[in-house]
């Protein structure tokens, strides 16, 4: 499915089992399809949401993959469901641009050996990078991808269960939060 609203463009593949519930939750009309919903959820997140993107994506129940391009902000946002039914592939094209598609042959032809499967349960934002929406407190780890000839051809990304992303410390109010996030 394809949808474009106010310079935000979305390509959606798959389906959301809880779309009627999400439509009610966001106050949208009944005729909204998955691509339209994703654009509205993205606009809500971008413009006024107090919730992080990973929290919204965790609420999506189904097999899905999507790519959003926000022409005003000149950013791309993509996500792939965790159930491994829908497949997306990504890579760097010859001109240096990012390419994301569900057609592996198209990505392979455009990106030569610098392509890989898009990691399941993850989201990518062109300004913030790749993160897992299933495990948002863990960093992503690049695992070299080697072809049948033994040549490195990109990376597969996995959640690094041993690493944590810094968050607000869970201590009493006497702690000095002014130093949180600073490197010692």
TrEMBL record:
Gene3D superfamilies membership: Glutamine Phosphoribosylpyrophosphate, subunit 1, domain 1
Protein name: Asparagine synthetase [glutamine-hydrolyzing] 1-like
Pfam family name, one: DUF3700
Boundaries of every DUF3700 domain copy: 1-159
Domain of life assignment: Eukaryota
SMART domains assigned: DUF3700
Signal sequence region: none
Species, as recorded: Coffea arabica
């Amino acid at each position: 499915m394809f949808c474009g609203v106010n310079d935000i463009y979305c390509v959606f593949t798959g389906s959301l089992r809880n779309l009627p519930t999400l439509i009610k939750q966001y106050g949208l009309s009944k005729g909204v399809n998955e691509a339209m919903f994703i654009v509205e959820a993205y606009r809500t997140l971008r413009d006024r949401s107090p919730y992080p993107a990973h929290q919204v994506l965790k609420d999506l129940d189904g097999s899905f993959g999507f790519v959003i391009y926000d022409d005003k902000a000149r950013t791309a946002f993509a996500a792939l469901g965790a159930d491994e039914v829908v497949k997306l592939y990504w890579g760097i094209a010859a001109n240096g641009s990012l390419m994301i598609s569900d057609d592996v042959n198209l990505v392979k032809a455009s990106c030569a050996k610098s392509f890989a499967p898009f990691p399941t349960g993850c989201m990518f934002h062109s300004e913030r990078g790749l993160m897992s929406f299933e495990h948002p407190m863990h960093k992503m780890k690049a695992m070299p991808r080697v072809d049948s000839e033994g040549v490195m051809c990109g990376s597969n990304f996995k959640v690094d269960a041993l690493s944590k992303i810094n968050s607000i410390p869970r201590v009493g109010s006497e702690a000095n939060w002014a130093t949180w996030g600073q490197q010692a």
